[in-house]
Amino acid sequence: GAGVSQSPRYKVAKRGQDVALRCDPISGHVSLFWYQQALGQGPEFLTYFQNEAQLDKSGLPSDRFFAERPEGSVSTLKIQRTQQEDSAVYLCASSSSPGTGELFFGEGSRLTVL
Amino acid sequence: KQEVTQIPAALSVPEGENLVLNCSFTDSAIYNLQWFRQDPGKGLTSLLLIQSSQREQTSGRLNASLDKSSGRSTLYIAASQPGDSATYLCAVKDNAGNMLTFGGGTRLMVKP
């Protein structure tokens, strides 16, 4: 596609449920990032992939968060046993150059945990 | 750990004014700095990317400057319009690591 696509755009989960958020990066982009953005704040880094390799997961807030990119294109961010503090917008971004290029962001997936 | 701060957090100006948004960062060992725009409920749109070796970048009515040694960047918007109303985010990429560190953003409202 022409841009980064994320789905679902909106997700409401009951506390304790598992959720999966999908990101389709720009075709051919090597680098893929996940960010978490709380209301009224700037995005916070979660994890980074170069092709299928997860090179940095230092921003994942707990072991309930897991991300994968098995074929080096589509990525999925999974959150297990969701908590209210997980409520945020989850942004995906991709770049053509590993670690150096301009980032292009999707519109995000807004997660609300009740 | 890199920290990015944006001042002011919110700004309201009448249409036509020139304005400056400020961004500061604590670690000057950056690779590049990027300014983004975010409309409500939307993702981030890249406005300007300044490499560490550059002093400024211009795009239309926007001009971004970078003073790496003092850890500061400014985004200048000329002749502001109501359509410029959005949140503006500054982000830096360090020499070490691949991710961007973001500031908290400046919420701009331009009144007609």
Please explain how this structure is put together:
The complex is a heterodimer of chains A (114) and B (112). Chain A has strands at residues 5-7, 10-13, 19-24, 31-37, 44-50, 53-56, 65-68, 75-79, 88-95, 104-105, 109-113. Chain A is mainly β. In chain A, strands 2, 4, 5, 6, 9, 10 and 11 form a 7-stranded mixed sheet that branches. Chain A has a 4-stranded antiparallel sheet with strand order 1-3-8-7, with no helix packed on it. In chain A, strand 5 (44-50) and strand 6 form a beta hairpin. The relative contact order of chain A is 0.33. Chain B is mainly β and 112 residues long. Helices cover 0% and strands 60% of the residues of chain B. Chain B contains no helices and 11 strands. Chain B has strands at residues 4-7, 10-14, 19-25, 30-38, 44-51, 56-59, 62-67, 72-77, 86-94, 100-102, 106-111. In chain B, the strands form 2 sheets. In chain B, strands 2, 4, 5, 9, 10 and 11 form a 6-stranded mixed sheet that branches. Chain B has a 5-stranded antiparallel sheet with strand order 1-3-8-7-6, with no helix packed on it. The radius of gyration of chain B is 13 Å and the shape is globular. The mean pLDDT of chain B is 94. Chain A binds chain B through residues 4, 31, 33, 35, 40-45, 48, 50, 55-56, 59, 91, 93, 98-100, 102-108, 110, and chain B through 4, 6, 31-32, 34, 36, 41-46, 49, 89, 91, 93, 97-105.
What global shape of chain B is seen?
globular
Termini separation of chain B: 41 Å
Greatest contact pair?
A: A-B, 28 and 25 residues
Q: Uncertain segments of chain A of ≥5 residues (pLDDT<50)?
A: none
What letter string, H or E per element, gives the SSE order of chain A?
EEEEEEEEEEE
